[in-house]
Amino acid sequence: MKQDEYLKIYIDELSQINPCLPEENLSLLRKVSLGDEQARARLIEGNLHLVPEVVIEYENSGAQVGDLIQEGNVALMDAVSALDGLDAGLEVFLTERIRAAVEEFIRLEGVETLASRKLEDEANRLINLTRDFEAEHERAASLAELSELMGLPEDEVENIMRISYSAMTMGDKSAGEEKAPQRNPLRDGWSE
Prior knowledge:
The radius of gyration is 26 Å and the shape is elongated. It has nine helices and no strands. It folds into two domains: 3-111, Four Helix Bundle (Hemerythrin (Met), subunit A) (Up-down Bundle), CATH 1.20.120; 113-188, no CATH class. Helix 2 (22-33) runs antiparallel to helix 3 and helix 7 crosses helix 8. By secondary structure, it is mainly alpha-helical.
């Protein structure tokens, strides 16, 4: 499902819920401060429309819209739990909390994506260096030789190999279908 389709479906579902008007928010805030759980639930439900309003601003951030909506919904629930003593500016408070959660998610996802790309680049470099070594020497490279070629400590090279191997075997598993045993580059040498 495309990002904009997901957001549209979510917004359509929210149209079934009456948003809280400012007067209702104030009334619910008072009840929530007295521990009324039904008021808390209605306050969350009646302000869910704030989540897609924020998420739309980040629709082209590279993050999945569904993930942003989930982060926004959790932030909304957390914000309602932190309302003690707040009697005005509720929508601004909730929107700021949702926006902060969405931005933090995007920031963390970006960091994760960069780390993933770096690992992918290192794995590809390892494969190419291994291929070149084997073509030149007509044998598999040792871990020490790969370490020297990559300019990385042996444990880092071994870690790249291990993670790459895990990714390869996870990608090869079909739904419920057993495949023939895979070659293990840590055991059998990196090249085929």
